[in-house]
Amino acid sequence: MSRLDRMLEEKRREYEKLQAPDSMEDRLRAALQEKKPRRKLPLSRIAAMFLIGAILTYNSSTLAYYGKQLVGYDTVMDGTLLQLSRMGEGQVVDRNHLFSDGLEVQLDVAMLDGNGLVFFYTIEDTTKSKDINDVHVQVLPDIPFVNAGSSGAGEIMEEDHMQKWVFTTDEPPPFFIRKVTLELTYMKEDGSSEYGEISFRLDRNKAVGETVKMGIDRKVELAGRTMEIEDISMSSISTVVKGEIQDLISLGMDRLNEEYMMPHNMEMSLYADGIEIERKGAGMSTDMKGTRFDVRFDALPKDTKDLRLELDSVSVHERLDMELEIAEGETLDIRGNEIFINSIEERDGRTYVTITTEEGTRIPGVRLIADGNYYDLLETSESTYEKKQDEAILNTRTLEFDGSGEDRKLSVTDIRYTKDYNLTVYEESIE
């Protein structure tokens, strides 16, 4: 067994070592003597009955889980969740809310680990009168102290007049939170909305295994700022990489300088023993702590020995304020992005500027300054692509501006681009 598996199972073994109190037999015997039953049973048989009762009581929810709760979810679960569900993992909730027109939302099961909370729920038209394809209920977790972004998947089952959904929060509830609520917003065909909620007490004893977190603490330059990849958390459900794009001070300085930088896509690759792990999604958020990110992957295979994380690329949107003189054959540099000016033409009082950039580089906030006058961009046309020997793809297109003049500049207030890293940011041997 690898070191990672040992770490994940460490606390589980602690529970397995728990034993019944030494005084249990004496207490059972004394209780039986006080009752003076008509027919005495052997103590071994009584103990066996006690244990059977305890086992059945403990596993009654698990039996219900297999017998009722997760029927129909196979097609909306990924391989990891499907395997865990077949093992009986998770907490059976079995709570519902019935709307006034007979639409019911049933929360079946919740799975908790250190990376998030997974909900399994069903939306059913109990009247069998609605088109289930047109039914929309927004389900959002209301968990104190949690910025509960989520992602999920669903399936419509027309013959059964129901929808099956599985969604996962981006982070787990804090350890002191016991009550979890799902807020329901039912958007009806007539444009009105009806609200409801489902609440339940979170049983942390039903958490799906343990979560192991390892520090990465790798700093990377991004658009003149420092992005930090902080840690990686590994659990039975998922593997999550988290970090900080900008701290609060850096955000404040940007606001003072009337600048703005926000990555809108981050590509990372995770490898376990050389095999790439499926990427599940990514999220970014800004609050009083700064701007943070997380990238989610599937759970690591059992007995993983070597782990490698690579930062592939980051797509960025920057707001800035630049005025750049332009001339045919010259190259502009905007935040490290080259913009080649192929040609400048004037026709019918308009100016046509043809540029070439790398694929993914866009300057949507651009205007032409000619003889001190500002002219808006009317449209972008004639876009062509060319692949270079180094695999980079160049994009050539023409910008049409509503005006012309001699002394020309480009006023650039926005730029979107992708920065390639292809950088290994973390390697770990977990044998």
Instruction: Name the CATH architecture of the largest domain.
Output: Sandwich
- Largest sheet properties: 10 strands, antiparallel
Query: What proportion of the residues form beta strands (DSSP E)?
Result: over 45%
Q: SSE string, helix = H, strand = E?
A: HHHHEEEEEEEEEEEHEEEEEEEEEEEE
Give the distance, in angstroms, between the N- and C-terminal Cα atoms.
Answer: 8 Å
Rounded to an integer, what's the Rg over CA atoms? 30 Å
Number of helices: 5
Broad CATH class of the largest domain: Mainly Beta
- Can you tell me the overall shape? globular
Structural class, from secondary structure content? Answer: alpha+beta
Helix content: 10-25%
CATH topology of the largest domain: Immunoglobulin-like
> How much is the average pLDDT?
80
| Overall number of domains | 3
Uncertain runs: 14-25, 34-69
SS elements, strand count: 23
How are the strands of the largest sheet arranged? 13-12-16-23-20-21-22-19-18-17
